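Hey Z.,

So I finally got round to the glutathione thing we talked about over coffee. Here's the setup:
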Amino acid sequence: MKFQRFAAMLAVLALIAAACGGTADDTTPPDDSSVTTTAAPVDAGQTDGESTLDVVKNRGTLRCGVSGSAVAFSETQPDGSVTGFDADFCRALAAAVLGDANAIEFRALTAQERFDALSSGEIDVLMRNTTWTQSRDTEVGMDFAPTTYYDGQQLMGRSEQFSASSTLADVDGAILCTNAGTTTEKNITEGAQVAGATIQLETVETFPEAMEKFKAGTCDLVTTDGSGLVGNKATAVRDGEITEDEWVIFPTAPISKEPLGPVYRQNDSTWADVVNWTVYATIIADEKGITQANVEEMMEVDPEAARLFGGEGELQTAMGLDAEAFLNVIKQVGSYTDIYNRNLNPVGLFREGSFNAPFNQGGLIYAPPAR
Ligand SMILES: N[C@@H](CCC(=O)N[C@@H](CS)C(=O)NCC(=O)O)C(=O)O
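And the result:
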């Protein structure tokens, strides 16, 4: 225990040193420019060995890290509320743990800030378009929940310069913009090199800033996860800034794999189970056609649904939750399809034919059995 406290102190000193003198690049691990420490939580009143589950229950609110400006995933509204796919998974977790989908404090974080916010205990969970990578899973000190959205990196340019069949070789000589502290900047640097294209990469703090530069013509292209490009293009069309065919997203086959999902501090198996099974509950509900409207009826006729939503044979209390934890998730927030369709259909993202379709319809969205 003493050693752990000493390690935590060292981590704080490292953070202060980084904040005072260094740039993000001084501490860049191989795949991430955003992290200065991998230490255990040093804040938020969490004692050594205590699960985040107890911290959240005692506090009575969930602190959920989001972007706040990721179209359709987490967008801070003028009244301060946060909407989107990631925001709804925060709500699902709050409904499971606290019985109240609104018992949340959202924290808007840039890509650079997100892992430090988790390491320091400022947030309990991160739901911010975050890609599961080996370095984040190991040296950065994170653990990853099941993927909630299978994405891939693409580029967006003007139709007079690029087309849907453009490739990375075609971006030779171009200025590309994206946000810092992301897999995006690493992928495009490597990808362009392999394709033999010389590019000028400009990284800014947030993706909306990259979009502003693209609109102003300072950048020839923007690049990020495909969902982000689709969302930003849909917003520009909706706001009358462009016509549907003015900007083009390419290449059709993304240049990377970006499995996005919830992230938590490593080595907290109790909390990991809770976050993971909250995601799984939304997926199992979806597999069974269970919705906010019919969940109680389905519990009568389907033994797995009965267990998962608090009936005979329930396993939620063994995880430190109320038996009805996942019933609250479905009733207050909905199944995976409810969450997906509500947030992503409006910007033109559909499950059909994508990796985000259910496993029995050719997709990758799959949950282990609730038994
Ligand atoms: N998935 C990548 C990229 C994440 C990312 O920053 N995505 C952009 C595009 S949607 C974003 O969240 N932008 C909103 C912002 O900058 O706040 C990662 O984990 O590094």
